[in-house]
Amino acid sequence: MQFGKVDHPETVDFSLPHDHPDTLKLLSNSKNKKPLYITIGCAKWNKQDLKGFYPKGIKDELAYYATQFGCIELNATFYKAPSKDQVITWSNKTPDNFKFFPKIPNTVSHFKRLVGAQQPTEEFCDAIAHFEDKLGMAFLQLHDNFKPKDFGSLETYLKSFPKVIPLAVEVRNKEWFESPIINDNYYHLLNSLGLTNILVDTAGRRDMMHMRLSSKTAFIRWVGANHPTDYKRLDEWISRIQQWKEQGLENLYFFIHQNVELESPLLAAYFIRNLNLALGCNIPIPKTLHDNNDQLKLL
């Protein structure tokens, strides 16, 4: 992922901001707290991007990837909507507890800009419904120039989105975060529809780290900088997740990206191992061809 890439990440203040006050209100507003469900994955499974991850002789990359990770952020569907048969093929290659998080096609989000997009949306949802229990959550990533002036289009689209498909939303334009009134209106819409917002942690867009949840699900797209600071950044996220868990977070979907994706599995292994230590959970740690304690930098 190149979004938010900077030339000198060592100059960036990567500290996580304090939570928005509404995050604590939302998380603590529950009498019966559920155990925290966690799934962690990468953005892609192809061998070209994840060099050094697949053992020699692996022919089916998805089938192997699914033995190492619990989920995939399915960016391929952004460029081409899958057919029902393709979804079933992908699903059949993965274990029962694996989850897919398909991105809504750019035909809907970027070209039509949500207007007159009912047919392609329904076709997409009809196809991904065949993931059945392996469907984690679809997500809508809007264009950088999709601004609050387009709120009406967003509201109409989200209200008509098929209710049987869980959905997360990512707005990118800075105007969504600069005005408290605009931000409150946006979150009121998500809250009223039971939708999840996406937090993007990337070097060049710290404004997107508003730390405001719209549901008891945290959907995090974390983008490393292929830089030593990546490890400290992940450590800080572990502390925040631990805090959210104590406050009432119910689901954590955490996807690790890199500007150069080949390091993503190694960072994921580091993150999962230390998250297990912090939370007392037992998420399987993916193997890498570089797997040793020095490179995982265990705490």
Please tell me about this protein's structure:
The protein is an alpha/beta fold and 299 residues long. It has a single domain, classed as Alpha-Beta Barrel (TIM Barrel). Helices cover 38% and strands 15% of the residues. It contains 12 helices and 8 strands. The protein has helices at residues 21-28, 61-68, 76-79, 84-92, 106-111, 118-128, 151-160, 175-178, 180-193, 229-247, 264-279, 293-296, and strands at residues 37-42, 71-74, 99-102, 138-141, 167-170, 196-201, 217-224, 251-258. An 8-stranded parallel beta sheet has the order 3-2-1-8-7-6-5-4. Strand 7, helix 10 and strand 8 form a beta-alpha-beta unit. Helix 10 packs parallel to helix 11 (264-279). Mean pLDDT is 92; it is low at 292-299.
Give the rounded overall mean pLDDT.
92
CATH C-level class is Alpha Beta
Q: What kind of oligomer do you see?
A: single chain
Order of helices and strands: HEHEHHEHHEHEHHEEHEHH
- Which percent band covers the strand fraction? 5-15%
Principal-axes geometry comes out as globular
State the distance separating the first and last CA atoms. Answer: 27 Å
Count of the separate structural domains: 1
Rg, rounded, reads: 19 Å
SS field, number of helical segments: 12
- Provide the CATH topology: TIM Barrel
Question: Could you say what the CATH architecture is?
Answer: Alpha-Beta Barrel
